[in-house]
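Why does this matter for the project? Reviewers at the last site visit asked to see concrete outputs rather than summary tables. In response, this paragraph embeds two records directly. Each consists of the residue sequence and, immediately after it, the corresponding structure tokens. Nothing has been edited or filtered.
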Amino acid sequence: MTTNQPTPPTAPLAEEHAADHAAADHAAEDHGTDHLGWPHDDRHDRGLEFDIATLLDRRRVLGLFGGLGATAALAACGAAGDSAGSTGGSSSSASGTSSATSPTSSTSSSGAVTGSTPQAEVPAETGGPYPGDGSNGPNVLDDSGIVRSDITSSFGSSTTRAQGIPLTINLTVTDAGNGYAALPGAAVYLWHCDRDGQYSHYSQAVTAENYLRGVQATDAAGTATFTSIFPAAYSGRWPHIHFEVYQSLSQATSSGQIVKTSQIALPEAACAEVYATSGYEASVGNLAQTSLTSDNVFGNDGGIYQLATVTGNVTDGYVANLTIGV
């Protein structure tokens, strides 16, 4: 594991605002601090040189996936498309979700229900201040044990289990440069906060933990599956899950080239059900203070290409399905 552990934040959690700022192309300026006390700056990446290399390598990466190249992929970003569905069907415009059409679905070898073919590449989003990929402090990607489907507990010296309502996450990855064909053998690194809004390795109470982080290869249908818990809503952000897509497991576990960094949005109806249960009390007020359209990440389009379809209940747990193009 990389040992460049950042200095823990000193400000109390209750006094801080949102963790993730929206646009990665903001000018260098002071954005205050986030909900854990870190400087509020989304440019927690691998530097300008890395970003330029990412842009120049885009054609090469898509070529390895059998794609049509960077130009076609970037053009696809502007195409209109169907929204991912949410629990209970269409959501109101007040919550920022779009009315979803009925998708043609199929089942992957992992048991995930994949939705309609994406109509545009999933937007690139900030990885936030707590990526755990070595770009801002700790790096779990080179740790033995990070390749796993069940991410509810820490691995290594700690076996602490994150408490909360069970959530299975099925993320299906397709190639936007090749007719949105499934991408088997790619890899997904996924992470999110716990039910208290804390991020393992970063939040003061859980710096010794690495739960709610894991890497999985995509199966024959392009799906990576994770067993987790429903994340909290913390101040300033709509409930979300972070992910990075890599060309392969070996690329993911060696901090290789990232194909896509983005976020999954969770639908309001499922969030409201979960947050009415014990342990999620703080999320009730936080959810009420934001919406998909006001969120500083999903707000530009209401999360139309990032809104998962979530089914289930608080007794049996939930399943979140999202198909993306990269």
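We now turn to the second protein, recorded in exactly the same manner.
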Amino acid sequence: MVRFVLLGTGSSDLYPSPWCGCEYCANARESEEREWRHFSCALLFPDVLIDCPPDLPHSALRAQVELYKVRHLLVTHSHHDHFSTDPLLLRRSVQWAQRTPRKDMLPLPELQPLTVYGNAKVVEKCRAFLKEVGGKYDLKIEVQKLKPFEPLKLDERTKIHPVLAEHTRDEDALLFVLERDEFAIFYATDTGWLPDETFDYLRQFALDLVVADATFGLAPATDEHMNLEQVRKLRERLLCEGILKESGQFVATHFSPHWTPPHRLLAPSLQQDGIIAGHDGLWIVLETKGTGDQGLGTGNSDA
């Protein structure tokens, strides 16, 4: 069994946007929490995190996952809503607690190492942060640069394949194929329509799960983000070319509030096209055939 959880499913605006009074934002404020979206990030449970936005601690708490189990952080690109060093600084809290223990406190577990993987800008940003705090704290963070289309084995069960996004001109924004055991997951945000070389690379996989950018919703797509129409076309193409299994799941994420209907309306509309509308705290369970059907949930790590 492999579990994958969407911790956040919003765009850089958040959902609702705190500075916006449009119809969708106003309605979201008055609705249940499922309509609210943190910055987009995800977790291959329990140890591979994709992106580190500034509100990551809140997203993780809401999804009931423990970040201290994360050993690998894959960063798509350096934009602030996808990579902030603020959550990484919170790793110092363990050291603070060890320095000033209560008399009745049991020994604290040691802070476990974390490796941050990303493009040149991510590496530069992370190293600058570590240099700044290095005199005060040993956060046990290492940094490793990734290159598009050069796979990397994280452990005996897990291999990652960074591929190119169509997102920004000043850095190589990355998307990730994650292989764990016999399952393959494609996490594709932020991106416009995929580059030809990315499609070519994807043809080696039979994907069990695709999570794709749908930022612009009902509005026209751009060369940096897709909309709902392109997400539908992407699913069709991946199925037609055999890249996505017939039994594979397809989830839309990274929704901007100004152009995307609320979840209660979006979900049934996308379901008609075989697409799951992602929401914060959505657990996706991939299981070997014969042990149970692939399923969805909103529970905790024991779901």
